[in-house]
Amino acid sequence: MRQRPSLSALAGPLAAALVADAVPLRLGIDVLAGATIVDGGIARPGGLEAGCRIAELCMGGLGRVTLQAGIQPDLWPFQVVVHSTDPVLACLGSQYAGWSLSHKEEGGSFFALGSGPGRAMAGKETLFDELGYADSGGHAVLVLESDAVPPAPLVERIAADCGVGTDRLTLVLTPTASLAGTVQIVARVLEVAMHKVHALGFPLDHVVDGIGAAPLPPPGKGFVEAMGRTNDAILFGGTVQLFVTGPEDAAADLAQRLPSTESRDYGRPFAEVFAAVNKDFYAIDPLLFAPARVVVTALDSGRSFHGGRLAPDMLDRSFGGTGRAGPGK
User: Fold this and answer.
1) Residue 169: what are its φ and ψ, rounded to 5°?
2) Global confidence as pTM
3) DSSP-derived secondary structure for 265-320
4) Which residues of the chain have pLDDT under 70?
5) Is residue 325 part of a domain?
6) Is the separation of the CB atoms in 95 and 119 below 8 Å?
7) Does one domain contain both 218 and 160?
8) Where are the alpha helices (H) located in the chain, listed in sequence order?
9) CB within 8 A of 253, min separation 6: which ones?
10) Of 152, 175, 198, which one is at a domain's C-terminal end?
11) What pLDDT sits at residue 38?
12) How confident is the model at residue 1, as a pLDDT?
């Protein structure tokens, strides 16, 4: 039986290093109900490097995230590149925003989706039964895409669900419109591919390795624009290569069905799609959430199969490109 690593054990040192480097990373550190709260863009600015570090933390220490020059260096010359040695566990078991966290009280309510290695400690999602994975440890870490600090009662409940004291809980907050939030969301290019692989019924144990890249968009002004740009970076500019075992025809079929181009909702910037369904996520075709272009390599035969296409014009439309400035402009 394959031995699987502890996500919490791998992520613990990354969380500690993030806190230790808070000043150069322009992060805020606070304590709430005994838990460590890392501010990645609410009251403190954060930045691109913080986003890379948070994305690696989000993958439970099983991924590497870097910023590199892109292959289409016209208006958007840089890209977020992510690689994982265990795409199933890193992406579905940790990075996927699958834990719904909410709290209502007099005067308001809080809602966010939790990502990160703490999900496997709480085990609240049926996905972990499918993965056959559970985790435990002395420290829990979650990443919340939020522009608000969670209330103390929710913090206490998260710690209890993870089986740790609040003093052994770290929550990292990254607003969508922040620089760090932008990077850590675009760094999900491989994760959205893995999520669709799962939705399409392809055997997860046939996925051996994976790498993805998507252009780095400018942060949007406000939540909806920021959400649209980060999604569009993947839907219209993301590329993923998966290395799989099994029959060659299954790899070829996956390459054709996996890209975002195969969705009925493909063809408009995500913010427009979102507005057209009255901001109801559940009315959007779930198969839209995928990279624009995929390569699936069948390791047993050595052949690679390609599907989808990049759409740089849609990126310009979404990102607010104004064209290339000439001399003196």
Assistant:
1) -125, 135
2) 0.94
3) TTTS-HHHHHHHTTT-GGGS-GGG-S-SEEEEEETTTTEEEEEE---HHHHHHHHT
4) 1-2, 72-73, 321-329
5) no
6) no
7) no
8) 7-20, 48-58, 87, 118-122, 127-131, 152-162, 179-186, 189-199, 223-237, 248-257, 270-276, 312-319
9) none
10) 175
11) 98
12) 47
